[in-house]
Amino acid sequence: MKTTRLKPQTNTDAGFGHKTAHRNGQTKPLATKTDNQTKPLALTTISNMRPATLDKVEKAVRQLFAGNDASDITMIQIARAANVSLQTLYKYFGDKQTVLYTIMDLVLGRLAARMMDHLQGIDSVEDRLRKTLWVCLDFVDTQPDAVMVLSKVSISRSHNIAIYKNKELINAFLSVLADGQNRGVLIDTVPLHILFDVFMGFVIRLGIMQIIRQTDTPLNANFDVLFGMLWRSMSKPEEV
């Protein structure tokens, strides 16, 4: 009986473009040019990117992610909207998620710097909270696209935005609340982080619903009323 020797079969993995040879039930990868082409490019810090180019990428990210589901956006779309090469995006960011998180970190970094600047030279706890709220609501009024993009970052992914872990920013804000508790001005029967959550929850809910409802009147047009509501929820009741 004549035995027919089977030739090695070459298949292509459609997912990665890698060829494999099957011999005696074993699968071994074959070296191809595709292997070298699929290696991730070494990332270059965005500090080396031209400011004008970074500005175009930021505008593209804010426009695309504010109006679409994040899963539907591709690197090609970002590159086209920013009028930059796809190679440039991969060089500086590596993937879509990094583009999104890096740009949002820049946006929030500017907000943080503005908040801290407004707190300088103000001693009154009430006035410092007033300034902080005004800056936050002004951010909603003037940059609704950024607010919408941030609202689409899931809780499980928010740690990827570095500013959420910025100790300088968080500690500066918490110091205002802690000072308020120590002075007997703010409620001191709850942990400090609860006061922080009350403040941020107030801002976030107002901001998102302002955009969803497409309200023409800016939030800060009713600032005094809004701050009064927030202040009453956080300030220590006067003893009768």
Task: Provide the fold topology.
Blueprint: E1 9-12, E2 19-23, E3 26-30, H1 33-37, H2 51-67, H3 75-82, H4 86-92, H5 96-119, H6 125-142, H7 144-151, H8 167-182, H9 192-212, H10 223-234
Antiparallel strand pairs: 1-2, 2-3
Helix pairs in contact: 2-3, 2-5, 2-7, 3-4, 5-6, 6-8, 6-9, 8-9
How would you characterize the overall build of this protein?
This protein has helices spanning 33-37, 51-67, 75-82, 86-92, 96-119, 125-142, 144-151, 167-182, 192-212, 223-234; strands at 9-12, 19-23, 26-30. Helices cover 57% and strands 6% of the residues. With 240 residues, the chain is mainly alpha-helical. 17% of the residues are buried. The protein has a 3-stranded antiparallel beta sheet, with no helix packed on it. The termini are far apart. Helix 8 (167-182) crosses helix 9. It has 10 helices and 3 strands.
